[in-house]
Automatic annotation (TrEMBL):
<dbReference type="InterPro" id="IPR058579">
    <property type="entry name" value="IspG_C"/>
</dbReference>
<keyword id="KW-0414">Isoprene biosynthesis</keyword>
<dbReference type="Pfam" id="PF26540">
    <property type="entry name" value="GcpE_C"/>
</dbReference>
<dbReference type="InterPro" id="IPR016425">
    <property type="entry name" value="IspG_bac"/>
</dbReference>
<keyword id="KW-0560">Oxidoreductase</keyword>
<keyword id="KW-0411">Iron-sulfur</keyword>
<comment type="pathway">
    <text>Isoprenoid biosynthesis; isopentenyl diphosphate biosynthesis via DXP pathway; isopentenyl diphosphate from 1-deoxy-D-xylulose 5-phosphate: step 5/6.</text>
</comment>
<feature type="domain" description="IspG TIM-barrel">
    <location>
        <begin position="25"/>
        <end position="295"/>
    </location>
</feature>
<dbReference type="GO" id="GO:0141197">
    <property type="term" value="F:4-hydroxy-3-methylbut-2-enyl-diphosphate synthase activity (flavodoxin)"/>
</dbReference>
<dbReference type="InterPro" id="IPR045854">
    <property type="entry name" value="NO2/SO3_Rdtase_4Fe4S_sf"/>
</dbReference>
<keyword id="KW-0479">Metal-binding</keyword>
<dbReference type="GO" id="GO:0005506">
    <property type="term" value="F:iron ion binding"/>
</dbReference>
<keyword id="KW-0004">4Fe-4S</keyword>
<dbReference type="Pfam" id="PF04551">
    <property type="entry name" value="GcpE"/>
</dbReference>
<dbReference type="InterPro" id="IPR058578">
    <property type="entry name" value="IspG_TIM"/>
</dbReference>
<feature type="binding site">
    <location>
        <position position="367"/>
    </location>
    <ligand>
        <name>[4Fe-4S] cluster</name>
    </ligand>
</feature>
<keyword id="KW-0408">Iron</keyword>
Length: 425
């Protein structure tokens, strides 16, 4: 919530702190996961397997779910993919991985759902792109068919407009209208308006067809940071539908992470956004789960949710010529993330634990005291000892070759003492 002095504009007004109050949106139930309505921002992801490959898709969905993805989207583009969806759902259930599945439809969704009604029933939500649901006179009837399936099976839909597949008829009409303005808008603004209108007008049509507003999530994705911020501010201003945030085609590696974080952080700081996906291009050999980790870390660093203990670690400098503190920071982060699925059940609250791994005496003791548990390693020329602090108090000094293992053991002991006991029902 935004903290503010009652005399907000006076000389003694307190500066604002923290994100603005969440924008009011309608809650949408997606297979038991609530998106919007004040619920915590939901993390979702998407597979990159061939959905017709049942075993490969089940394996990846389970990996994404175990990493923390609360919803997982699948490509449904062929009859074989549609036929596979119920079997994927059933296998996941047998693995005790009951993650809601979202079907991503383009061009032929109306045909696939008609041909495979079991797919329509198995999915928790349908994603419909108004830019390519159909063309010309077929567009309205094919869109209506998809909405009718959603109504029949009680499913929510995401109406997801996209910069790369914008409804060209709508864009052309708005361009023509723009020419009639006394002061025409610049072309970029017209295209942003077309994207916004594509989502909003399609949502309005879905409601006219009988789909309750409480079963609609909207998105309007672009690949530019400033464009995305502008589009979602307008979507938020014009309605109360739950919003799915994501920078489309964000990119690979640090570029994709930075661009997505820059755009989504601004919007969520303004209270905009109910579910997020970080659309990263995986680097060769990289796990698809990385997009889930980035989404979680973005929400956690902003103070919006907690998923796993996070490690504060110094970047290193000329005082820290050893790489040991870097290796320890990595080991600690990997350890707590690996333990978190178990701790989530047996040690509720452990996700809020704060940790510090510091490399020298300059900031080490101070940062370690700020954390629940922290260690200050010796820098170049310092005494070969590493004091450990718990909740601001020095508890032990570690020395020798087993500092890493001993410190990890101290973390486990701290979690056991402070967060022991199953989560109450």
């Amino acid at each position: 919530m935004r903290a503010m002095n009652p005399d907000a504009h006076g000389p003694d007004a307190a500066p604002t702190f923290g994100p603005q109050a969440r924008r009011h949106t309608r809650p949408v139930d997606i297979g038991g996961v609530t998106v919007g309505g004040g619920a915590p921002v939901v993390v979702q992801s998407m597979t990159n397997t061939d959905t017709a490959d049942i075993d490969g898709t089940v394996k990846q969905v389970a990996q994404l779910w175990r990493a923390g993805s609360e919803l997982v989207r699948l490509t449904v583009n062929t009859a074989e993919a549609a036929a596979a969806v119920p079997r994927i759902r059933d296998k996941l259930a047998m693995m005790n991985a009951p993650v809601p599945l979202i079907g991503d439809f383009h061009y032929n969704g109306h045909q696939l759902l008609a041909g495979e009604p079991a797919c329509a029933e198995a999915l928790a939500k349908y994603r419909i792109n108004p830019g390519n649901v159909g063309f010309g006179k077929k567009r309205d009837s094919q869109f209506a068919t998809l909405i009718e399936f959603a109504i029949k099976y009680g499913k929510p839909v995401r109406i997801g407009a996209n910069w790369g597949s914008l409804d060209q008829a709508l864009a052309t009409r708005l361009m023509d209208e723009n020419h009639e303005r006394a002061v025409p808008w610049e072309a970029g603004r017209v295209l942003r308006e077309a994207l916004i209108r594509s989502a909003l007008d399609s949502a309005g049509r879905a409601v006219e067809l009988g789909l309750p507003p409480e079963r609609i999530v909207l998105s309007a994705k672009v690949s530019g940071v400033q464009e995305l911020i502008a589009v979602y501010r307008e979507l938020a201003r014009r309605g109360d539908h739950a919003l799915h945030l994501g920078l489309t085609e964000a990119g690979i590696g640090s570029k994709g992470i930075v661009a997505s974080s820059a755009a989504l952080a601004v919007l969520m700081q303004e209270g905009i956004g109910d579910t997020i996906r970080i659309s990263l291009t995986p680097e060769p050999g990289q796990s698809r789960t990385n997009e889930v980790v980035v989404a979680q870390e973005l929400l956690q660093t902003m103070g919006l949710r907690a998923f796993t203990p996070m490690v504060t670690a110094c970047p290193g400098c000329g005082r820290t010529t050893s790489t040991f503190f870097q290796e320890l920071a990595q080991k600690v982060q990997e350890h707590v993330r690996a333990r978190m699925p178990e701790w989530k059940v047996t040690h509720p609250g452990a996700e809020n634990l704060t940790l510090a791994v510091m490399g020298c005496v300059v900031n080490g003791p101070g940062e370690s005291r700020h954390a629940n548990i922290g260690i200050s390693l010796p820098g170049t020329g310092e005494a070969p000892s590493a004091p450990v602090f718990e909740d601001g108090e020095k508890t032990v000094t570690l020395r020798g070759e087993r500092i890493a293992d001993e410190f990890v053991g101290l973390i486990d002991s701290y979690v056991e003492r402070h967060y022991g006991g199953p989560r109450p029902d």
